[in-house]
Design a protein that fits this description.
Length: 148
């Protein structure tokens, strides 16, 4: 039956062309999946993900797109909820359990959310300057693309 997506565990969708992003995901796969309290989760570069199917799982409202995944990591739950940026990281940490879950819970608190979001956006805009980042990590300039 086409159009029906079954996701057993949440999926972390990230920019696989970005060395910084890929390094962060590999770190998470290595250290955040080791805890006994950790629930399962999958990760996939948006370049290889079936974004249309993940978006259909999320209700088909365009919440899962290449444009969005290029700018922020996405956390797509089996129930179809989509979290982006700092809140996607928070959900990953909550899913990990243990001490990491406390940090994840902190990131979801109303007074912390805007600060976490601002820090995430700053890192995202500057990811080509981060350790392991390359010129390929730089986000496309939206203003230049719109003027063409």
């Amino acid at each position: 039956m086409k159009g029906v997506v079954v996701v057993k565990d949440p999926v972390l969708v990230f920019d696989g062309d970005c060395a910084f992003c890929s390094s962060c995901v590999r770190w998470g796969e290595r250290y955040l999946r080791q805890t006994l309290a950790s629930g399962g989760w999958d990760s996939v570069p948006f370049q290889f993900a079936d974004l249309a199917e993940l978006d259909a799982l999320a209700g088909g409202r365009g919440e899962v797109s290449a444009e969005r995944a290029e700018r922020e990591v996405l956390w797509v739950t089996p129930a179809g909820r989509v979290y982006g940026g700092a809140q996607a990281v928070a959900r990953l940490l909550l899913r990990t359990g243990g001490a990491w879950a406390y940090l994840g819970a902190l990131l979801t608190l109303a007074p912390v959310r805007p600060v976490a979001g601002a820090v995430y956006r700053w890192v995202s805009r500057n990811r080509h300057r981060m350790p392991g980042g390359t010129a390929a990590c730089a986000l496309p300039n939206r203003k230049a693309a719109q003027s063409v």
